[in-house]
Design brief:
Blueprint: H1 7-16, H2 19-33, H3 41-45, E1 52-54, H4 55-62, H5 66-74, E2 82-84, E3 87-91, H6 92-106
Antiparallel strand pairs: 1-3, 2-3
């Protein structure tokens, strides 16, 4: 009976491969695995449309530092959608709109 390769076997094999062969492997993988998966933003992130992000998650989503994010909140440019204890939560649709406006203003 033929033995099936496991993920651990593959990982061990990759560790022993020369660097050039590893690069070839990952190039082949990226070129072939995701073919035909040109997903829209909605298909990829639609499940988040009703979610809320913490301040850290919102800052990461907006691609700004925490200090910049806090300034945006303090100035009233961003408002939390709810507060849980001492934590402010930010609605994803509002963050998406704000991010679009930031990108439009930059360029």
């Amino acid at each position: 009976m033929a033995r099936t390769m496991t993920a651990e076997d593959l990982f061990q094999g990759l560790q022993h491969m020369p660097a050039t062969e590893r690069q070839r492997f990952f190039a082949l993988l990226s070129a072939n695995v995701f073919r035909g998966e040109d997903l829209s933003h909605e298909e990829l992130f639609g499940h988040l449309s009703g979610d809320q992000f913490t301040a850290n998650e919102a800052a990461e989503y907006l691609e700004v530092s925490m200090s910049t994010f806090r300034r945006l909140v303090a100035s009233g440019r961003l408002n939390p959608s709810s507060t849980v204890g001492r934590n402010q939560m930010f609605a994803v649709p509002q963050l998406k709109t704000f991010k679009r406006a930031l990108k439009t203003a930059k360029g």
